[in-house]
Amino acid sequence: MESPTLSERMARWQILFSEYDITYVSQKSIKGSTIVDFLASRAMEEYEPLRFDFPDEDLMGISKKEGESSKVQSWKMSFDGASNALGHVIGAVLVSPEGNHYPLTARLNFFCTNNIAEYEACIMGLCSAIERKIKILEVYGDSALVIYQIRGDWEVRDSKLVKYRDLIAELVNEFKEVTLTTPMRRKPIG
Asked: Are 146 and 119 spatial neighbours (Cβ–Cβ below 8 Å)?
């Protein structure tokens, strides 16, 4: 007896899956040699450092303000967090007054909401800034909820977020000046 071809086996599996409302979707594949060829072609090119400009993001624009004193320049920190079925990741970038970028990323090993991930990202960035002995910091985040709760503009209704907000309030006390900014407006705290 001749063994069934791949397409015959796939058809049989589709019939069996249809009983359970399971639909088979074929996965598009990329030959391994294609990826290797691409990576090998890039190896010969000159090294290009990571670019930290995000032209399709309307989150913010970091620039020197008019009339800003050149003596006291602040560091800048942007943070973001995400939680979905693929995992929970956080990130922050510290930018020195000279324009040097210090990226931070982490994967959270516990279940959390997007708001918790945003708080965790902010905490990670603030802790890193404290370790660097930064005293003046401009903090940029895309989560209006987190920024407004930290500022005290909005009350914290979710009991899981109260401890996060309290921890950030303690961390902010380590700085001389902290400014929290959303894409909409800017307001100093502390």
From this structure: yes
DSSP for residue 52: -
Each domain of the chain, given as residue ranges in start order, spans 6-43, 75-189
Tokens of 145: 């909820």
In terms of Cβ atoms closer than 10 Å to its own Cβ (0-12, 13-18, 19+), residue 178 is buried
Amino acid identity at 183: P
CATH number of 75-189: 3.30.420.10
Tokens 């950030």 -> residue:
168
Mean pLDDT for the chain overall: 78
Provide mean pLDDT across the span 59-65: 48
Per-residue pLDDT tens over the stretch 11-35: 777 777 777 766 666 666 665 566 6
One-letter amino acid at 80 equals D
